[in-house]
Amino acid sequence: MKIGTDLLSLITVVIIISVVIASLAAAVMGLLSCLDGASVPRALLRAGAAFGGSLTVVASLLTVLASAIK
Length: 70
Hints:
This protein has helices spanning 5-35, 40-69. The model has no long low-confidence stretch (mean pLDDT 88). It is elongated. The chain contains 2 helices and no strands. α1 packs antiparallel against α2 (40-69). The chain is mainly α.
């Protein structure tokens, strides 16, 4: 299967948007953890968990959409 440039650029944009959304979720989670009184290492752990969870959800949704389109 040959991938066209339009599809490749769309996939690239979707991946970049997914990483940005996951980064925003991690930043918000880290800030809320600090405001809640958590230590800095604990806040970073929570932010990392939020980042990983967000990417997992986005990857699952993209997989479902790709299989539906196919």
